[in-house]
Amino acid sequence: MSTASGSNHKMRPLGDVAQFLRGITFKPEDVVKPGTADSVVCMRTKNVQVDLDQDDLIAVPSHFVRRDELYLRESDILVSTANSWNLVGKCSWVPRLDYDATAGGFISILRADVTKILPRYLYYWFNSDKVQHATRLCGRQTTNISNMSFERCEALEIPLPPLPEQKRIADILDKADAIRRKRREVSVNLCDYSLSLFQDMFGHPDSNPQHWPIAKFSEVCDSRLGKMLDAKRQTGGDNRPYMRNLNVQWGRLDLSSVFQMDFDDSDRQQFRLRYGDVLICEGGAGVGQTAIWRDELPECYFQKSLHRVRPYPDKATPEYISFLMWVLMKGSSLLRSISSATIPHLTGEKIKEIRIPLPPLAHQKQFSSQCHRVRVAHCTAVCAVNDADGLFNSLVTRAFEGDI
């Protein structure tokens, strides 16, 4: 039996201290509403997030759960075991649930043998960057789905100190995790503040309580869809960064994955982003999501999956348009402008026809000024979150090397 590098902790195969339980299978027509008599909530891959996402639940008749061990227990770990390659191994801690639940076919339950390993210790080890990478390498690719090999994953070795030492390590990591969670909450609350401020200053656009004049979107903003790009142009040439719908999230841009494409000289003037442009997702699961471009990259363009909206300076501010769209997408008349035969789409023609309230420009600028203050505070909060994440990840690495 080996020991962990830099420590006296014995190494044991994961399969010696925990077991994987495959989720249940069922057909789409078997799904019922949660709370239906003789039903059980069934967790899916979308529920496996940083924390277990309980906002969008489905259920199936309880007879699909053929063994009692397949009911979720507090301190289980849900693991995505059939997914795109980069998501295999993604996991969530299962808290105490107020309802019976099980796991669906694309996820599995990782359950600790509590006589050998503390569940919380197991969770921090399995969720560490190093082990998450190792679990992806345990996947077998079939078409676009990678399926985890339980045999290979159970062979991964985990450092196994005595139970009291496991508890000490888990307690330290719990405290460190609580600090970074509080910092994340501050960041989220700042985003929510701007949204609340919009509604306080302007009211909901559907009801228009202050009776602002109404104008067509096309009268207030210049909008256009981006460039449809050929994948062959991703190699060679003079590549430039461009935004996709995946980069646009509610109120912010995610620049962790920016593609490069060779844009022709003739395209660069039309599709280059300017400071203050509002980017709006044209289709898919994130349809209508908005973010404002603020020169995050020296030169950047946008793909056809995005609307580039440029408010006329004498009509509207970017902040007003961005938050207006955000509010409209949170369940309002705008939803009727989205075609959804297969995938929802907010087409170029339909966005131009949307009718929106138009408050005085001075009022909008006052809102934009407040948004700027919030954005500065948010940047500070994000830096604090990044620092906390870095320190936490470093602490996790040290913990499983026997260095805390």
Short summary:
This protein has 404 residues and is an alpha+beta fold. Helix content is 33%, strand content 22%.
Can you walk through the features of this model?
The protein is of the alpha+beta class and 404 residues long. The protein has two domains: 10-160, DNA methylase specificity domains (Adenine-n6-DNA-methyltransferase TaqI, Chain A, domain 2, Alpha-Beta Complex), CATH 3.90.220; 213-358, Adenine-n6-DNA-methyltransferase TaqI, Chain A, domain 2 (Alpha-Beta Complex). Helix content is 33%, strand content 22%. It is built from ten helices and 23 strands. It has helices at residues 14-17, 119-126, 129-136, 150-154, 163-202, 217-220, 265-271, 318-329, 348-353, 361-399; strands at 10-13, 18-22, 39-43, 58-61, 77-80, 82-83, 91-93, 101-103, 107-112, 139-142, 145-148, 157-160, 214-216, 221-225, 239-243, 248-249, 252-253, 259-262, 278-281, 290-292, 301-302, 306-311, 355-357. The strands form eight sheets. Strands 2-9-5-7 form a four-stranded antiparallel beta sheet. It has a four-stranded antiparallel beta sheet with strand order 14-22-19-20. Strands 4-3-8 form a three-stranded mixed beta sheet, with no helix packed on it. A hairpin with an 8-residue loop joins β19 (278-281) and β20. The chain is globular, with a radius of gyration of 25 Å.
Topology overview:
Elements: E1 10-13, H1 14-17, E2 18-22, E3 39-43, E4 58-61, E5 77-80, E6 82-83, E7 91-93, E8 101-103, E9 107-112, H2 119-126, H3 129-136, E10 139-142, E11 145-148, H4 150-154, E12 157-160, H5 163-202, E13 214-216, H6 217-220, E14 221-225, E15 239-243, E16 248-249, E17 252-253, E18 259-262, H7 265-271, E19 278-281, E20 290-292, E21 301-302, E22 306-311, H8 318-329, H9 348-353, E23 355-357, H10 361-399
Helix pairs in contact: 5-8, 5-10
